[in-house]
Amino acid sequence: MRKPQGDNKAAQGMLRIIGGQWRSRKLHFQAAEGLRPTSDRIRETLFNWLSPHIHGAHCLDLFAGSGALGLEALSRYAAHCDFVETDSTTCRQIRDHLTTLKCNTAAVHCQTAQSYIAANDIKHSIIFLDPPFHKQLLTPIIEALAGKSLGDDTLIYIETAADEALPLLPSHWHTDKEKKAGHVNYRLISVHN
């Protein structure tokens, strides 16, 4: 979730949970270059899309960054979330947020998305893919996920810069929803085995 575009909330090092049990909670994080939460507007649309599926879901937040997507999912009663992030300071901040929220239904994995996928069975019902923009990280991650036995009807959220082409998806992945907001394209994809 590291992106080159700035955002006022990111400059302040703050994210706001927009719905669920922790609605309106503000969480502070150490601002870093290119690190910002997915915008409130995009998260609101995404979680409207996910509303029939989020309660009790097992989520995987790859490229977690601030943890905004996984925290929002947990606030809306996802059963569990695995956060995957390479930066140790950012991982510590996500753990601190979970402690602040008294949430024990999550795990933070300080490693690359590819190493996490290679070492684990991916049994999550919702996967968030929000990699750094313009780094060509999506293609290898999509290929790695395609090599796993994802559950039927797994939902995958993909966020990219508007000027980035979406990599070729496996034939059994179907784009259900797609929108653009400013310089960001975002999509909800379902897996049909």
UniProtKB/TrEMBL annotation:
Top-level taxon in the UniProt lineage: Bacteria
Species of the source: Zhongshania marina
Family, as annotated: Belongs to the methyltransferase superfamily. RsmD family.
Name of this protein: Ribosomal RNA small subunit methyltransferase D
Name of the coding gene: rsmD
Any one GO MF annotation of this record: 16S rRNA (guanine(966)-N(2))-methyltransferase activity
First-level EC class: transferase
InterPro entries: RNA_MeTrfase_RsmD (IPR004398), SAM-dependent_MTases_sf (IPR029063)
EC number(s) from the headed UniProt entry: 2.1.1.171
Function: Specifically methylates the guanine in position 966 of 16S rRNA in the assembled 30S particle.
Lineage per the UniProt record: Bacteria, Pseudomonadati, Pseudomonadota, Gammaproteobacteria, Cellvibrionales
PANTHER family membership: METHYLTRANSFERASE
Pfam assignment, any one: Cons_hypoth95
